[in-house]
Amino acid sequence: MQRRDFIKISAITGATAALDSCGQPDVQLIRFIPEEDLTPGVATWKPSICTLCPAGCGTLVKVMPGDAEVLRNGRLGIIKMGLAKKIEGNPNHPINEGKLCPRGQAMLQVTYHPDRIKHPLKRTGPRGSGQFQEISWNEAIKELVAKLQELQATKQEGSLAFLTKPLRGQRRELVRRFLAAYGAPPVVEFEFFEYAVLRRANALSFGRPQLPTFDFAQSNYVLCLGADFLGTWNSPVAQSIAYGQMRQGRPGQRGKFVMVEPRVSQTGANADEWIPARPGTEGVLALGLAHVVIDAKLRPAAAAGRAGNLIPGWSEGLRNFVPAEVEKQTGVPSATVVRLAREMVAHPPAVTIVGDAAVAQTNGLRTALAVNALNALLGSVEQPGGILFTPQPKLSQPNRAPEGPSLEGSYPAFSRLVDRILQPMRSGVSSGPLTAGGVARRRAGIGHDTGSGDSRSPRDASAARHAGDAGHPAGNRTSTRRGSEEGPPVENL
Ligand code: SF4
Description:
There is one protein chain. By secondary structure, the chain is an alpha/beta fold. The protein folds into 3 domains: 1-17 and 130-192 and 407-468 and 478-493, no CATH class; 21-117, N-terminal domain of TfIIb (Single Sheet); 211-388, Dimethylsulfoxide Reductase, domain 2, CATH 3.40.228. Helix content is 33%, strand content 14%. The protein has a 4-stranded parallel β-sheet with strand order 11-10-9-12. Strands 1-2-3 form a 3-stranded antiparallel β-sheet, with helices on one face. A 3-stranded parallel β-sheet has the order 6-7-14, with no helix packed on it. Helix 7 links the parallel strand 9 (221-225) and strand 10. Helix 1 runs antiparallel to helix 5, helix 6 (195-206) packs across helix 12 and helix 8 (282-295) packs parallel to helix 12 (364-377). The two termini are 39 Å apart. The structure holds iron/sulfur cluster. Iron/sulfur cluster (SF4) binds at residues 50, 52-53, 55-57, 96, 100-101, 103-104, 236-237.
């Protein structure tokens, strides 16, 4: 794939905000034929997914007919098209069951908010000065391509850094392949909520490199160390629904909830008991609780299995984590440590959650491993009322993206998609249906080659250009701010 093509596709797939609404008075207005399935004044609700956090709640988008300015074949006109007016939760979606969090409710603003960034911005002042100037997509692409060519001419491809939020699906594959073909290091993904640490810990403790699902609805005791699970953490809508079930959905049976954190969060404000602890000592508290359980022979240390074996001193009963020592480090009174441990054992199924700032410390992975071991000790892993892991589909090799540079082979659908996107750009004429996304692309000028583009099909060009790239060392790795999924061995942490 060419650099220019890559940038165009990246811009398209990520540039939903590129449609600006200012008109050009010197261009004749044309009213296109309205879409036939739109009835004036009648709303239709289109199912979709909220993408504002990894939870992926199901949504229904209220679409009404409206007028939109569009460019078609270089001419500005007005077309009646479906415009998103409101977003609600999809009652048939298994994660959120019709509910949405405030972010999901506000998602329309991603498309309509007047302050959203609608054009590429170029820094015009010194770094950090905050001085930027809007430039067109054509200018931005030209500049980027020139920079990439400059790096290539001086053999500095390895100095290119591609920083992004976590990518999924075809966009991730697109970026991975481009960087591998170009000779750059793997993409650097920035994960704001530090979920990478939890995935790593779950991989080490349970062989599941995933975020957990909590079966609160059937829990009788929930101890949370730092995770704002009713506010923003993990899957807050699903967790709020299950939490409500635990507290009020079982007549005569109300689960207890204890929150440990350094400041009162939205979740902490809902707790039966709120306990302050020094930041970064949540793992010490978890091991202190485990010590009490093992020492009092409430549960055998061996019950924690692999998760316990990862913790130094576990099989000896964690003698360094007696309640008095835990109090010294965490600030949680030793009597409270003993009481919490006994309560958890006495009210199964009991589960401990850790997340947010508690695992964003330098000892975050150790903290998460300690909590995993505690949950395993309590028998709360993969059990009703405890931690569950979503079964992952086992992708057979033919369905996975090939590691080689060609867009062909076992990924023909992706290849065809790239062709479909690039063809109108090359010809400057759209052959597909007119969509808001297509309009945005055309208005942004992405549909025109800006210079020394390669006129070959992406497949031909890719195959010819990258024939020797299959063995590139950067081709199959993805790093995150805190390290890759492989990460260092636990003994070195
Ligand atoms: S929890 Fe909120 S932001 Fe996350 S997917 Fe659901 S509605 Fe969207």
